[in-house]
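Researcher: Re-running this chain for the archive, since the previous output was lost when a drive failed. Same request as before.
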Amino acid sequence: MKSLCVAAMGAIDLEVLTVVEQALGSWFRAPVRRLPLPEPDFAFDAARGQYGSVPVLRHLVGSRPAYGAKLLGLTMKDLFIPMLTFVFGQAQLAGDVAVVSLARLSQEFYGMPSDRALLAARARKEALHETGHMFGLVHCRERTCVMSLATNVRHLDAKGLGFCASCAQQVEQRSIGRSREV
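Model: Regenerated structure tokens:
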């Protein structure tokens, strides 16, 4: 059976990695394998002081191992696409790769004290969201569904920890494995 791969692009908190891997494995019914990748320094845009998510996705395409059905990269770098000031993540819709930035999911980004549990919950939601896109799901109107669009952390925090019934049904139909533990 093919695996879902999670690539730690540089140093990523082990608790966050574990939470993300467990959520992906449970919802998408697949073994999850971790692989290390270097930080995406190649994607730095000096004019913006951020990292382009498109070059990161291109890099991930070339880094996906043969045993990996999908590859999700996690980075602490602040990502952007040209038309937006930032993105929490980006995925190929119905494709093989996605990336999530933990930079703006961290309380420290906003000048607040560290909160590892909140960072892990936000990372879980965003990882499920971007992985959902890889499995062909689009944005959901249900605000508590992880597939709803979040343009700031307040929106992200208002989401639940999983998919709504409609999106869960789509995940069920498109998942790699046979049964999901609840």
